Amino acid sequence: QVQLVESGGGLVQAGGSLRLSCTASGGSFSSYAMGWFRQAPGKEREFVAAVSRSGYSTSYAAFVKGRYTISRDNAKNTVYLEMTNLKPEDTAVYFCAAVLGHGLKLDRGEYDYWGQGTQVTVSS
User: Fold this and answer.
1) CA-only gyration radius of the chain, Å
2) pLDDT value at position 39?
3) Which residues are within 8 A (CB) of 14 and not within 5 positions of it... i.e. 6 or more apart?
4) Are 93 and 38 in contact (CB under 8 A)?
5) How would you classify the pairing of strands 58-60 and 3-7?
6) What totals of helices (H) and strands (E) does the chain contain, helices first?
7) Which of 8, 15, 38, 39 is the most exposed place for a label (fewest CB within 10 A)?
8) In the chain, where does DSSP find H-type helix?
């Protein structure tokens, strides 16, 4: 069973940038497809980005529009979410998630393991 710990959240002004990290332990990290999701107050948790086991394939939600980049370093057991040109509507708790298997997973129901989340707040 894998444990996930996110970090890197915080308060940033609109137009700013943040890099989130999610470090895994307790499993063979390179065997897991990884994803980032977010949940704003009063809203459902939504898909943000996904990366395949190798890191070669990625997918993004439409609202990302080229502002975010997901990547992973299997040697460091870490997946990243680089966020630029942040907007107030990006304010949410961001979660990373993991599931054993190939390919990209876009549905939160496909993931078996979740971190505790990290808060991102974008001020206008």
Assistant:
1) 13
2) 98
3) 86, 87, 88, 122, 123, 124
4) yes
5) unpaired
6) 0, 11
7) 15
8) none
